[in-house]
């Protein structure tokens, strides 16, 4: 793997399907790199919006589906080129210990300060109908108490 490929991979923008990019622009210029996912998506959208190439033709030339084109176009419209950078994989928030559940946990704690993780996990299971590990409850409570302002966290 060369240096640029390593940088693209580390940034999470290495195009795994670079060989599927057959657009002439990417084969005729050293500037355009089919391994750069953000550049490929940007040029695909630009080809449709500026050059008026049909979506199906542009998507095929850049190695994407029509649905992927529309997703990229919406991301570009909403956030500019930064919107084309793939997000972090995995869950985007809590699955079980959501805000309503944690609000209820806080109510229980306000009524009885002696309640700890194990007792709170049992209350959650009884009221909401799903099991949760006591340590998960304790970590969620800790996160709710932490300041969300980075300056407040550093004491500035």
What does this structure look like?
- The protein is mostly helical.
- It has 9 helices and no strands.
- Helix 3 runs antiparallel to helix 4, helix 3 packs across helix 5 and helix 6 packs across helix 7.
- The protein is elongated.
- The model has no long low-confidence stretch (mean pLDDT 92).
Beta strand count? 0
Range of strand content: under 5%
Q: Count the helices. How many?
A: 9
Largest sheet: none
Topology record:
Layout: H1 3-11, H2 24-28, H3 37-49, H4 55-61, H5 66-79, H6 99-111, H7 117-128, H8 134-145, H9 150-154
Helix pairs in contact: 3-4, 3-5, 6-7, 7-8
Notable characteristics:
156 residues; 58% helix; single chain
Structure in a nutshell:
By secondary structure, the chain is mostly helical. The protein has 9 helices and no strands.
């Amino acid at each position: 793997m060369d240096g640029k490929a390593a940088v693209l991979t580390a940034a999470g923008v290495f195009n795994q399907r670079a060989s599927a990019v057959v657009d002439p622009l990417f084969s005729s210029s050293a500037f355009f790199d089919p391994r750069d996912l953000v550049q490929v998506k940007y040029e695909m959208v630009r080809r449709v919006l500026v050059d008026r190439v049909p979506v199906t033709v542009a998507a095929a030339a850049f190695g994407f589906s029509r649905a992927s084109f529309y997703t990229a176009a919406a991301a570009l419209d909403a956030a500019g080129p930064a919107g084309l950078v793939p997000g972090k994989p995995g869950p985007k928030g809590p699955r079980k210990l959501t805000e309503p559940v944690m609000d209820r946990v806080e109510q229980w704690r306000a009524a009885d300060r002696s309640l700890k993780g194990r007792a709170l996990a049992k209350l959650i299971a009884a009221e909401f109908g799903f099991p949760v590990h006591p340590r998960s409850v304790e970590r969620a409570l800790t996160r709710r108490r932490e300041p969300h302002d980075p300056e407040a966290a550093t004491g500035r």
